[in-house]
Amino acid sequence: MRHALNFHVVVRPIKEQGHKVAGGLQLSTDLDTELRYLKAEVVSVGSRVVAEMKDEPVKIEEGDTVWYDRHSGHEIRWLDDEPLKVLKLGDLVSIDK
């Protein structure tokens, strides 16, 4: 198993259905340029993230759902050639607990 290092968080993007625009056209999250933040599941958390958040009331753990800026991070492929995103702690904007 591979693990994130330092201030990095590896996430699995969650594909959402999108929404309809005027005229009934269904836009996916990939095409919706007005959608700033995307949802993802945390796969791995770096040790510096854990240390940085030790005094915070909410901790980031594997399996959590987080929201991140769509323009941040880089794509990698780990297990089964599945596309994942590598983000920095500062790229995360919220967490669903």
Account of the 3D structure:
With 97 residues, the chain is mainly beta. It has a single domain, classed as 10 Kd Chaperonin, Protein Cpn10, Chain O, CATH 2.30.33.40. Helices cover 6% and strands 40% of the residues. The protein has one helix at 47-52, and strands at 8-13, 19-20, 26-27, 37-45, 65-69, 74-77, 83-88, 92-96. It is globular. The model has no long low-confidence stretch (mean pLDDT 86).
Q: Which residues sit in consecutive blocks of at least 5 with pLDDT less than 50? A: none
Fourth CATH level, the homologous superfamily: GroES chaperonin
Cα-atom radius of gyration: 15 Å
Domain count: the total is: 1
Total number of beta strands: 8
The CATH first-level class comes to Mainly Beta
Distance between the termini: 25 Å
Overall mean confidence score, pLDDT: 86
Strand/helix succession:
EEEEHEEEE
Strand order of the largest sheet: 6-7-1-4-5-8
What fraction of residues sit in β-strands?
35-45%
Largest sheet: 6 strands, antiparallel
CATH T-level fold name: 10 Kd Chaperonin, Protein Cpn10, Chain O
- Class based on secondary structure composition and strand pairing: mainly beta
What is the CATH architecture term?
A: Roll
